[in-house]
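Morning run. Coffee first, then this:
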Amino acid sequence: MSPKSANILSSFNHFEPDLKNELVQKGRVIEFKTGERILQSGEKYFGNLLVLDGLVKVFRKAEDGREFFLFFIEPGEAIYLSVLNTDNVNKSELVAIAAQETRALSIPYSVMDDLILRFKTWYKFVATSYRSRFEKIFTSLDYYAFRGLDDRITDYLRKQIRIFKTRDLRVSHQEIADDLNSSREVISRHLKKMEKNGAIKLKRNRIEVLELGHEKIKS
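And here it is:
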């Protein structure tokens, strides 16, 4: 395996050297700035993206134009990975936005089938990624359908801590409202109650998480 392939695909150490070399040779590295849209609902796409570093937020766009936050995609995962492509042109039903400066390796569909036949690790990765994507979507839908807003805010903050590896979160009330399909006023009211209960400390465009615990935050 070439040093270049090893460096670019350092988040995909489970891939064998020959697979890494071929992905780097036939793929193309793309860089996205924070806030840049990577995938837009309804647009055509011609390949899959492997996230090399950074962080991606995935949304589902409703008919009325609202966007529902679903999940994060981290390094070592794929953006909107499909198992099969019958007409070489698919349309995305999701929206993907770079939550941080992000690099991804674009893999054309023209080489997908060949890689699946030749590399067992790639076949397993495709199947696992496809299943994981739907599990994340169903989990997110369960939260919207069956969980109260206080639980959803608590879970949202826990995910932010895990993803960004800090309890001092740079996130605004409006961003949380957008991600949880709520209003800024409602989110602010819940956050103030959480602050009163000693769970968090509110700062300007930041939230310091003190102790969420494992129990439901009472409102």
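The first helix runs from residue 3 to 8. Good start to the day.
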